[in-house]
Design goal:
single chain, about 550 residues, Methanol Dehydrogenase, Chain A, about 35% strand
Length: about 550
């Protein structure tokens, strides 16, 4: 993994904008052909006249923003009127060298191109022209090493390279920076986790990159020695998407199939130097308690607090005087973590009353992702700061971030507990649009739940006509402000299916990729935990071997 990349290339397809200066680094491998492409094309539409995109169209982090809303509110091209199988369909596919478990990201106007950034489990990251699918550059971040094996675990297989969704800062470095975590193994069988910072316009490592992930934390839990719990890179994968918050890149760590020893880590790094700034272990005197969220990343609120769901693990039912776990073990909890001065500390939490039985049954809350909602006013005129999350028990937990409810063995003290609203377990997360949250549980329909007087309705206002098998679906929404709302959902099938629904009435399906004759819009085998990326009139969906790009056909 590491050092300067040995596999980079760039295609220069358009000459109508000056290229952004790439800095002083030299690209290791460059394809000079102007006509070459590493995409396969069924049909494509020429970019619309004018700018190839604006920063308002960017998707730089998982589910669009640090609240993890899944909302693209600046979509002016796609509407409920033109998203149908006559006008809309597959434009091209982007083949890559491994599974695409990370959400594709979109960056407008870089060196004369709009870019789609795609990371793979083979340890590669690609930049494609988002409008026509040609390759701009490709970097392997594991030169001289190989991706990790799957550790005998079927969760990420057959190899583990880049699993989590990276995060991009357009203003970091001379041309913008992509932050990502990659796992690898050397010829001696030693495993590594490394945080990388790549130049957005070239794919080359920035100064100080990469950085080995090394950590320890006071405790006597799994893999501890001398009073310190030690991070073993071989025991973890970075499944949860990265969070960039106030100049710090936060990583949150998952296990391989609950194979111990492991504990619950969140580790922060200065985005400019990649120097480690903070370490927090949430089960330091116990075990398990990972962060994975079916690929969702930790969320954050406007006050700089991290909001995250922790998976099954040790929870101390004995509480201290402040109502916190006596030994600092927060397994299977909904967490609020402060980041003051770059240091991490639990400020509040919610843990289900039946945490012990849920842990025993592997029914962890942490199989889903947290969504920070905008402020709402309740029936008494009070402003409520809310978040929602759901996991394997199928409950939708609505949390007041000012008073999360902590733990009470007699019953849940959360703001709301909607325990019959979903028809299955959640291996996904919600999306938010215009006073409504959208959930797609396993074996359930996609459902819309309205929020009125700061309360989430227990009965859906609408739902899709079709259901979604494992792992359900993580929806995304496109709109033009509060109009033209479309809910997009990927179905894990073979072939994969992209669905589009009217956001105001999910029973009205606008389009799905099986509708056109002769498999016109089939784009590859489905992959679990995929969420669509919508930007500037196109929709990008990851598969087991690439990305399908959809848009208007004419």
């Amino acid at each position: 993994m590491y050092g300067l990349s040995v596999k980079s290339f760039r295609n220069h397809l358009f000459g109508f904008w000056a290229l952004i200066v790439a800095g002083t680094l030299v690209v290791a491998l460059q394809i000079a052909s102007c006509s070459g492409s590493n995409s396969t094309t069924n049909r494509m539409v020429a970019p619309p006249p004018g700018s190839p995109g604006t920063q308002a169209n960017d998707v730089l982090t998982y589910h669009n923003d640090i609240a993890r809303s899944g909302l693209m509110p600046n979509e002016t091209i796609l509407t409920p009127g033109n998203v149908n199988s006559t006008s809309f369909g597959l434009l091209f596919t982007l083949p890559v060298d491994g599974k695409v478990d990370a959400q594709p990201l979109y960056v407008s106007s870089v060196g004369g191109h709009n870019l789609v950034i795609v990371a793979t489990e083979h340890g590669s990251i690609y930049a494609f022209d988002a409008d026509v699918g040609t390759g701009i550059w490709h970097t392997s971040v594991i030169p001289g090493e190989s991706p990790s094996d799957d550790h005998g675990c079927s969760q990420v297989t057959p190899e583990i390279g880049i699993t989590s969704t990276p995060v991009i800062d357009r203003n970091a470095g001379p041309n913008g920076t992509i932050y990502l975590v990659a796992m690898s193994k050397n010829s001696a069988g030693t495993y590594f986790q490394r945080l990388h910072a790549l130049d957005l316009s070239t794919g080359l490592e920035r100064p100080g990159s990469p950085k080995n992930v090394v950590a320890s934390f006071p405790g006597a839990g799994d893999n501890s020695t001398g009073g310190m719990v030690v991070f073993d890179p071989g025991q973890y994968k970075e499944r949860a998407s990265l969070l960039l918050l106030n100049g710090v890149v936060y990583t949150a760590w998952s296990s391989h199939c609950d194979f111990r020893p492991y504990t619950g880590w969140i580790i922060g790094y200065d985005q400019n130097t990649l120097v480690q700034t903070s370490v927090l272990n949430l089960t330091p005197n116990g075990n398990e308690g990972s962060f994975w969220g079916s690929g969702a990343g930790p969320a954050a609120d406007s006050s700089g607090n991290i909001i995250a769901l922790e998976a099954n693990g040790t929870f101390d039912t004995s509480l201290n005087a402040q109502g916190f776990p006596a030994q600092g073990d927060f397994g299977n909890s909904f967490l609020k973590i402060t980041t003051t001065n770059g240091q991490l500390a639990v400020a509040d939490f919610f843990t289900p009353f039946n945490v012990q039985s849920e842990n025993s049954a592997d029914a962890d809350l942490g199989s889903g992702g947290a969504l920070v909602l905008p402020d709402f006013t309740d029936g008494q005129g009070r402003t409520r700061h809310l978040a929602v999350g759901a996991g394997k028990d199928g409950h939708i937990y609505v949390i007041d971030r000012d008073n999360m409810g902590k733990f009470n063995s007699a019953g849940n003290q959360s703001y709301q507990d909607l325990n019959t609203s979903l028809g299955g377990s959640v291996f996904s997360m919600a999306a938010y649009f215009n006073g409504t949250i959208y959930y797609g549980a396993v074996g359930d329909t996609l459902k819309a739940f309205p929020i009125v007087n700061a309360l989430v309705g227990s009965t859906p206002s609408s739902q899709s006509g079709n259901t979604f098998n494992y792992p359900g679906t993580t929806p995304a929404v496109s709109s033009n402000g509060t109009t033209n709302g479309i809910v997009w959902a990927a179905e894990n099938a073979n072939p994969a299916v992209l669905h589009a629904y009217d956001a105001g009435n999910l029973s009205r399906e606008l389009y799905n990729s099986n509708q056109a004759a002769n498999g016109r819009d089939h784009f590859g085998a489905g992959n679990k935990f995929i969420t669509p990326t919508i930007a500037h009139g196109k929709v990008y969906v990851g598969t087991t071997n690439g990305v399908g790009a959809f848009g208007l056909l004419h």
